[in-house]
Amino acid sequence: MALLTVSNLTKVYESGIIVRRYVEAVKNISFTIEEGEIVSLVGESGSGKTTTANIILRFIKPTSGNVILDGKDIWEDIKTFEELKEYRKKVHAVFQDPFSSYNSFYPVDRVLYQALELLGKNPRMSEGKELIEESLRNVGLEPRHILGKYPHQLSGGEKQRLMIARCWLIKPRLIIADEPVSMIDASTRGGIIKLFEKLKEEEKTSILFITHDMGLAYYISDKILIMYLGKIVEEGTPEEIISNPKHEYTKNLIESIPTLYKKWE
Amino acid sequence: MGNIVIQVENAKAYYILEDKYVRAIDDVSLSIKEGEVVGIVGESGSGKTTLSNVMLMNIKKPLSLIEGKIKLYANGDVIELNKLSREELQKNIWGKETSIIPQSAMNALMPTKRIKDSILDIMRTHYDKIEEEEIITKAQSRFEEIGVSRDAIFRYPFELSGGMRQRAVIAVATLLNPRFLIADEPTSALDVSTQKMVLKTIQNLRDMNIVKSIAFITHDIATVRQIAEKLIVMYAGKIVEMSPIEKIIEEPLHPYTKGLLYSVVTPEPEVKKRGIYHIPGTPPNLMYPPPGCRFHPRCEYRMDICEKEEPRLKDINNRKVACFLY
């Protein structure tokens, strides 16, 4: 059975006081993610990618449809705080902006402490300390260079690595990565991408990789979903999508991407 | 390829803070020929934008040109831009001989003015007397040439889409057919399909002989690769490699170029075969650049000599590279 099953998910945003306006951000989408699978959700801004992510993360309630994780409906079957905590251990997010994921008044250690506390471990005990150091090494950071520093003392790439270090502490089943490298210099991007691949290989973590960058999606994914105006218009392996796009939108998108090894006509 | 259009000779441009220098451009020499589109790439902070200011001689405090010459070749004459005053540059060079599509071109137009009025203002800085009718007709045909409707000139910037606004700025920047045009990250704020359109527009400027040569500044090799013949790779204020672009794609020589090129991911099978790279560490603080080769702290091929001596640009089969490996 798939780790995550999204079926007929729809989200309508309402606005206005006297005259109600409705915006259908996500229109009846369905997909699955298997264990250890990287699935990319590709689309331009406003296509509904982030709304989809926020629903799976339980930040936004869908208008209709279901999200089933590990056999449990994330809205119907999570009632108590304990169940919610269990859910938070299973599904973890890595966001676009590593700068705003930190509180600038606290040392960066805090984001790791919070993760340990979620696991019910004390970060000040030696076991907690060891776990933190191990997680930092897993993402290519040297603990003594990082711990005790404040967010402004780290580069964007280091901050994003640190967010991924949390994934090594919590070991979630599913990571929702919303544009995790779009704010990072191209020359350091590759290192971050490799960290996601490592989680998949060593921990069998599933990843929903949300991006507007077709090149990245092609490189990292087992499956690509193309989202356009709230709908999933196409789905397939990276090779299928690139060599034989079916939907007009996908065709146009792929034609417009500058390629490195071939020059346009 | 024809004659040289612009030449930079041993330029050093530093930002001077109270008692420190930021060596943003450190001994850079290059020349761009007629008919050429030259790409200039590097990470943020590598000195790309400072270099474009140096080429225009748009030098404002705290930036200052410490050493070097910037020569413009115009109709057989050599004009040393570094000897001209700001007023002379403004009156006779900028817009007429050299021009720039600025980095934030989307917001470069005055929002409270119709585009036509912005254009007339610009013209008044170049000529004491102007024929409004004539300029408007001329601008309209330029708009048409690069694919924006003639009527767009009577609109306010916010009435145009991102791609249209970008092209309107291109039209304004090239109104006086400047010899040399700099495009500073002209496509980075646009979505991919508009990006392609704007790239084509810039390419057309050269093909239609509106401008003679173009320097295209970007951090994205895949984009510049579509239109440039030659590539200059900058790192920490210096040129590390300079070569025909096809050769660089085939075989990058400098380890930095290699890292930069191999960290580009495009939807192509070659990319999957090659894998994805990254360059460890961050670019140096240019107040205290590392001794020897500025790239050595991040370089996987580092040797003893790299920490002591500065590599010079060497000629290798029609290419230039600054690295002790060669």
What are the SSEs and their pairings?
The complex is a heterodimer of chains A (265) and B (326).
Chain A: E1 4-15, E2 21-33, E3 38-42, H1 49-56, E4 64-69, E5 72-73, H2 81-90, E6 91-94, H3 109-118, H4 126-138, H5 143-146, H6 156-170, E7 174-178, H7 186-203, E8 206-211, H8 214-220, E9 223-228, E10 231-236, H9 238-243, H10 248-256
Parallel strand pairs in A: 3-8, 3-9, 6-7, 7-8
Antiparallel strand pairs in A: 1-2, 1-4, 4-5, 9-10
Helix pairs in contact in A: 3-6, 4-6, 6-7
Chain B: E1 4-16, E2 21-33, E3 37-41, H1 48-56, E4 63-74, E5 77-80, H2 86-93, E6 98-101, H3 115-126, H4 132-145, H5 162-173, E7 180-184, H6 192-207, E8 213-218, H7 221-225, E9 230-235, E10 238-244, H8 245-250, H9 255-262, H10 269-274, H11 304-308, E11 314-316, E12 319-321
Parallel strand pairs in B: 3-8, 3-9, 6-7, 7-8
Antiparallel strand pairs in B: 1-2, 1-4, 4-5, 9-10, 10-12, 11-12
Helix pairs in contact in B: 3-4, 5-6
